Amino acid sequence: MKVNFGGVEETVVTRDEFPLDKAVDVLKDDVIAVLGYGSQGPGQSQNLRDNGFNVIVGQREDSPTWQKAVDDGWKPGETLFPIVEAAEKGTIVSYLLSDAAQPVVWPSIKEHVNGKTLYISHGFPVHFKDITGVVPSEDTDVIMVAPKGAGLSVRKNFLNGSGINSSFAVHKDASGNALENVLAMGIGIGSGYLFETTCEREVVSDHVGERAVLLGGIWALAEAAYDNLRSKGVTPNSSFILSSEQATQVILPLIGLGGTNAIYSQAEKEGHLGTVLAYQNAVREATTPVMQKLYAACKLGEEARIALEANIKPDYRTTLDAELGAIDGSEMWTTGVKVRESGEDRAYDSDITNFPLAGAILGAMEAQYQTLLDNGHSPSEGGNETVEELTQSLNQFYQSNGAAHLLRVCSTTAQRGALDWGPEFKDAISPVFYGAPKYSGEAKVESNQTVTKPNMWDVMETVRKLRPGF
Question: Is 127 a catalytic residue?
Answer without folding.
Answer: no
